[in-house]
Automatic annotation (TrEMBL), chain A:
Residues 15-108 form the PH domain. The gene is Plekhj1. The lineage of its organism: Eukaryota, Metazoa, Chordata, Craniata, Vertebrata. It comes from the Eukaryota. This is Pleckstrin homology domain-containing family J member 1. GO terms for cellular component: cytosol; early endosome; recycling endosome; trans-Golgi network. GO terms for biological process: endosome organization; receptor recycling; retrograde transport, endosome to Golgi.
TrEMBL record, chain B:
Keywords: Cytoplasmic vesicle, Endosome, Golgi apparatus, Phosphoprotein. The keyword Translocase does not apply. It comes from Podilymbus podiceps. Gene3D superfamilies: Pleckstrin-homology domain (PH domain)/Phosphotyrosine-binding domain (PTB). Residues 216-231 have a biased composition (Low complexity). Plays a role in endocytic trafficking. Required for receptor recycling from endosomes, both to the trans-Golgi network and the plasma membrane. This is Sesquipedalian.
């Protein structure tokens, strides 16, 4: 699958929601924990060798599951392959918990659901659709429920 | 750079709703040949699917895997002066990055795509969410203020709101089992919800907002802090664009201008 790698690399240089040096292990046979600079930008998690400017890899954080594993460790896995886990060992349980919270909120789909939730609540409380004044109430991305094209 | 392509492809093809989809013709970008200055421009018809900030394209509508992906961050979408009618381009801030030139089937399709793509960025969605968070907080506050007043309305509507556990959602985000799969329902309520402020011994504390995005220490292009001065750089794609309604009218204006220009050209006859 082709993708605009150049733009993704540019995105990796943008200000991060969260960044830290964390021990990381990829789901490959024989792989071990390695210290990486891990950087969350929009719905991508980039990971760098600690002394390099360009990331070695990127994870799109959609349809993924963030799990607390053992002490200070969390993992990221994807819905279609739940056994393949990217593992991260943090310095403390606070850091671990912060990352879990941040990553759970990082997907576009999560934001979309929050938006639909707030829209619904505001509508219930005030009787008005808050998106109407911006002329975007009919936009597909803000609709509750599935919408097939 | 590695990417979790299998998962990305799965996201593209799973049945989570698309924000827009349709056939577009995509201009084929050829490398420069020094010997030739002119080469025929060709277009390939592809099935495009927009999900969030990701634009996927497939060889056929029924293809099981996307041929390509365009990540829509840091880009602008504009009509372009191609020989083709109904052409528009996705251009990136990064100078020297290639643009994607796409051609729609007609005026309406082109406008729909330009609109959908202009609003596809993560930052745009985040802006809308923050705006609604604020509005909900204000609605909660004014409702709480009404409750505390001695003149109690006997409307059943208000009573219903007070007993609704979903009234104070800002303590906790909607319950998420897996990223992107939330479970709140109309009867479900939200776990960990605090009592309505007016029962709280008269202490009307507004619900805490979710943690703000913190920018990296060295960055200048961080998220808008509360009390951001209006002098901060704003543009339709800049994360500093703090004023949602401004961002909105920006897009609206751009489309209005482009539409006028297109109509002018139509009147004059095709170039």
């Amino acid at each position: 699958m082709r993708y605009n790698e150049r733009e993704l690399l540019s995105l990796a240089r943008q200000p991060a929601e969260k960044a830290a040096e964390i021990l990381m292990r990829v789901p490959k046979k024989g792989s071990v924990l390695k210290k990486r600079l891990v950087k969350l930008v929009v719905n991508f998690l980039f990971y760098f060798r600690t002394d390099e400017a360009e990331p070695i890899g990127a994870l799109l954080l959609e349809h993924c599951r963030i799990t607390k594993e053992e002490e200070n460790v969390f993992s990221i896995s994807f819905i279609e392959e739940p056994e393949r886990k990217y593992c991260f060992e943090c310095d403390s349980k606070e850091q671990c918990q912060e990352w879990i919270e941040a990553l759970k909120r990082a997907s576009y789909e999560f934001m979309r659901r929050s938006l639909i939730f707030y829209r619904n609540e505001i509508q219930k409380m005030t009787g008005k659709d808050p998106l109407e004044q911006y002329g975007i109430s009919e936009e597909a991305r803000f609709q509750l429920g599935t919408h097939k094209q | 750079m590695k990417l979790n392509e299998r998962s990305v492809a799965h996201y593209a093809t799973c049945d989570s709703p698309a924000d827009h989809a349709g056939f577009l013709r995509k201009r084929v970008e050829r490398h420069h040949h020094h010997a030739h200055h002119h080469h025929a421009t060709s277009y390939q018809r592809r099935w495009f699917v927009l999900k969030g900030n990701l634009l996927f394209y497939f060889e056929e509508r029924e293809s099981r895997e996307p041929v390509g992906l365009v990540v829509l961050e840091g880009c602008t979408v504009e009509l372009c002066e191609a020989a083709e009618e109904f052409a528009f381009a996705i251009r990136f801030d990064d100078a020297g990055a290639r643009a994607y030139v796409l051609v729609a089937d007609g005026q309406a399709a082109m406008e729909a795509w330009v609109k959908a793509l202009s609003r596809a960025s993560f930052d745009y969605m985040r802006l809308v969410v923050r705006e609604l968070e604020k509005q909900l907080e204000e609605a909660c506050k004014s409702l709480a203020a009404c409750c505390k007043s001695p003149r109690r309305s006997s409307s059943s509507g208000r009573k219903r709101h007070l007993s609704n556990p979903a009234l104070l959602p800002l303590q906790e985000k909607p319950v998420v089992m897996e990223n992107g799969y939330s479970t709140w329902g109309s009867g479900g309520g939200v776990p960990g919800v605090a009592a309505c402020p007016d029962r709280d011994g008269g202490h009307a504390k507004p619900p805490p907002l979710p943690p703000r995005r913190r920018s990296a220490a060295s960055s200048t292009a961080g998220s808008p802090a509360p009390g951001l001065s209006p002098a901060v750089l704003e543009s339709p794609v800049s994360p500093e664009t703090a004023c949602f309604s401004k961002l909105h009218s920006w897009y609206g204006q751009e489309i209005a201008v482009l539409r006028r220009e297109w109509q002018e050209r139509q009147k004059r006859g095709h170039p």
